[in-house]
Amino acid sequence: MADHQEASVTLPSDPASVAAARKYVSDVLTEWGLPGDAEVADTVRLIVSELATNAVQHTLGQSPTFTVDVALAREELLCIGVTDSHPRFPKRLPAAVQQDNGRGMVIVRWLTAEYGGSLSVRPTREGGKTVAIELPWTVPARSVTAAGLQEP
């Protein structure tokens, strides 16, 4: 098994892309050995949904696409980042505004911490940002060979 596996997809900043991002990450993680019915798989799908939704809704049309990067380092650390080209970092909204929306990053932060992970936001060289999570990987990962067969 390789020390590092990566996958990436770039999608249009459109509400339909949220489901596509979630499915993409779910398929990649299944390929890497995470059972689709694992509790952490549901958590990752929810986190990806929230981050992709933010990339679509809060870039105010200034980011025509967003990219989802997935990496597994040394079968120990799962990293997922969502990058858009809008420079504004996410911020917590006042409680009064959060009644109908504005809780996405709170949810992401809480879920990430619950699984012993971390959340970061960093600028890109191009002037946008990447919102990323890191979670401990708790299942033996599989790699895919050139012939498409999975190795244990």
Summary, kept brief:
It comes from Streptomyces glomeratus. This protein has a domain of 100 residues: Heat Shock Protein 90 (2-Layer Sandwich), CATH 3.30.565. The protein is 30% helix and 29% strand.
Largest sheet: 5 strands, antiparallel
Secondary structure: number of strands: 7
Instruction: Identify the CATH class of the domain at 8-90 and 124-140.
Output: Alpha Beta
Q: Architecture of the domain at 8-90 and 124-140, CATH level 2?
A: 2-Layer Sandwich
- Rounded radius of gyration (Å): 16 Å
Let me know the average pLDDT. Answer: 85
Give the spatial strand order of the biggest sheet: 1-2-3-5-4
SSE diagram, text form:
Blueprint: E1 4-12, H1 16-31, H2 39-57, E2 65-73, E3 77-84, H3 104-114, E4 118-123, E5 129-136, E6 143-144, E7 150-151
Antiparallel strand pairs: 1-2, 2-3, 3-5, 4-5, 6-7
Helix pairs in contact: 1-2, 2-3
